[in-house]
Structures are given as C-alpha cells and as structure tokens.
Amino acid sequence: MVKDELRLLQGDIKNLKKERHSLLLQIQENKKRVENLKIINDSLVKTNAYYDKKKSGKVSLRKGDIMTIRRTSNTTCESTKTQPRYRGPMVVTEIPPSDTYRISQLKPSNGRPYATTAHVSQLKAWRSWNEDDDDSIENSDDGPEMQRPKRTVRKPEP
C-alpha cells in the first residue's frame, strides 16, 4: 500500500511539474506578447510623430491669396522630369466649406482664363525668385512671371 501511495504521489508530482511547466510557458508567452505590443505601440507613436512633423497641419487660405497648383503628369512620350510640376500663379477666388478652394489664373494665357477647384493638398504658396526685390518685378515687362536673380561676374585677379 505504501508503494502504491508513493506511485500515486510520484504521478501527482509529475503532473504538477508538467502543469507548472506549461503555466510558466504561458506566462513567458504572455510576457513576449506584452513586450511585442509595447514595441508596436512605440513604433506607431514614432510613425505618427514623423507623419505629423512632415504635414503642415491645417492650412487656411484667404480670398485673394496667390498660389500655384500641382500639375497632373501628361501622358506623352516626353520625360516628366522636364515638365513643370506646378502651374501658376493662381489666385483664390472662392472658399467652399470643405478643404477645397476655387482658384483661377492670375493672368490668362492664350486669351483664355483658367479656373478650377483644387484640394488644399494640391496647392502651394506662390514665391517669386526675388522676394526681396519686389520693385524689380513691378518694373519688369513680364509681370508676375518668376525671374532669376542676376549673376555677378567676377574679374580674374592678376
């Protein structure tokens, strides 16, 4: 009888060891799962911070602001590298209730005015080449076209 009881106790001890081992494995798996969730959460926080840093946030334009609009790429045989990326200058003419703006061309080309509705993500502020020299733009014959700064030529030293 004592031998039978010892065998039962040994069997119970083996079962307890197996249960203990399986519980330890479950605890380790849960710890790994929690660590992985923390890593994923940290990664999401970093990704969101990077995204928010790159986005300009809420852009508010007013009627009369001068903008450029992003062009859609033409499907020609030419390289898109040489095609202009933006069309402009354009002026904001109307502000609908959403993030879209009604814009029209500041100076009509070919005698035809160009007007369209564009999302704020397609718009960019108009900047001339010579922002400091505003009077040079006003005195030029070209009008609001972009101008390149004048190059200075240095004479060689003897």
TrEMBL record:
UniProt biased composition (Basic residues): 149-158
Coiled coil region boundaries: 6-33
Residue span of region Disordered: 75-95, 126-158
Record keywords, A-Z: Coiled coil
Acidic residues: bias regions: 131-144
Protein name: Uncharacterized protein
Lineage: Eukaryota, Metazoa, Ecdysozoa, Arthropoda, Chelicerata
